[in-house]
C-alpha cells in the first residue's frame, strides 16, 4: 500500500519523515473498535494510513456527539505531543477496518528539537481545528438544522473522497451518525436526504449516501455565514 502524505508532516525532509515513521508502531482496528477513550492517559499520536475514525465526546446528559471524521493522511491525538500528561479530550473509534501509525511523544519531541519548524506545523494544525470547532459552534447556535446537515455531508464527503463510486464521494455513515455530526435528529437528516435526492444532488442506497452534484449541494448549504 502506498504511504499517504500526512498533513502534520508536510514540508519536512523525506529523510526526517522516514526516521520518525520508522519509530511508529503499526496499529490495526476493526470497525467499531475504540482506539482510546476520553480521559485515558495521552502519550502518542496516530497517523491514519487507511480507514476512517470518528471523533466523539459525551455530554453531561450522557449523549454521545460526533465532532468529526478523519481519514487517510489525517492524524489524531496531537495534543499528546504538546501536553503528554493531559488526558485524552475525546474518544476515537474506527468506522471501518483501519490502520494507523502510532508515534510516541518522545520520538516526536526528538524531531521537534532537531527541526524547530515542526512546532509551527503542529501549531497551525491545532489552530485550524480550533477555528473549525468555533465555526461549528456558531452554526449550531445560529443556522437551521437542515443547513447544518448539508454542511456536515460536505465535510464528511471530503474524508471519503477517492473511495467513492464514479460520480461522487460515497459516504457509508448511518443517518444516526450524520445526525450526531449535525447536532440534530435522525428524522431531520432523513428529511434533508430525501429532499436532496429529489433535487438530484445525491443518491440513497442501503447504509450509504453517494453525492452526485457537490456544487449544487454547496449552493444549497450556504447560509448567513457561508
From TrEMBL:
The keyword Ribonucleoprotein does not apply. One of its GO terms (cellular component) is cytosol. SMART domains: cNMP, HTH_CRP. It comes from the Bacteria. PANTHER family: CRP FAMILY TRANSCRIPTIONAL REGULATORY PROTEIN, HTH-TYPE TRANSCRIPTIONAL REGULATOR ARCR. Gene3D superfamilies: Jelly Rolls, Winged helix-like DNA-binding domain superfamily/Winged helix DNA-binding domain. This is Transcriptional regulator, Crp/Fnr family.
Amino acid at each position: 500500500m502506498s504511504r499517504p502524505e500526512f498533513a502534520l508532516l508536510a514540508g519536512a525532509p523525506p529523510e526526517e519523515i522516514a526516521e520518525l515513521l520508522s519509530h511508529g508502531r503499526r496499529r490495526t482496528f476493526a470497525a467499531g473498535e475504540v482506539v482510546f477513550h476520553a480521559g485515558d492517559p495521552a502519550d502518542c499520536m496516530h497517523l491514519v494510513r487507511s480507514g476512517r475514525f470518528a471523533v466523539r465526546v459525551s455530554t453531561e446528559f450522557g449523549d454521545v456527539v460526533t465532532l468529526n471524521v478523519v481519514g487517510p493522511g489525517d492524524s489524531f491525538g496531537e495534543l499528546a505531543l504538546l501536553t503528554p500528561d493531559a488526558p485524552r479530550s475525546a474518544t476515537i473509534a474506527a468506522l471501518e477496518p483501519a490502520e494507523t501509525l502510532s508515534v510516541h511523544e518522545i520520538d516526536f519531541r526528538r524531531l521537534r528539537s532537531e527541526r524547530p519548524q515542526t512546532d509551527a506545523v503542529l501549531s497551525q494544525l491545532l489552530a485550524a481545528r480550533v477555528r473549525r470547532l468555533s465555526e461549528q459552534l456558531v452554526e449550531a447556535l445560529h443556522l437551521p438544522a437542515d443547513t447544518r446537515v448539508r454542511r456536515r455531508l460536505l465535510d464528511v464527503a471530503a474524508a471519503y473522497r477517492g473511495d467513492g463510486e464514479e460520480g461522487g464521494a460515497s459516504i457509508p455513515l448511518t443517518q444516526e451518525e450524520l445526525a450526531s455530526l449535525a447536532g440534530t435528529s435522525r428524522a431531520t437528516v432523513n428529511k434533508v436526504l430525501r429532499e436532496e435526492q429529489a433535487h438530484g444532488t445525491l443518491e440513497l442506497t442501503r447504509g450509504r449516501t453517494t453525492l452526485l452534484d457537490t456544487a449544487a449541494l454547496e449552493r444549497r448549504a450556504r447560509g448567513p455565514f457561508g
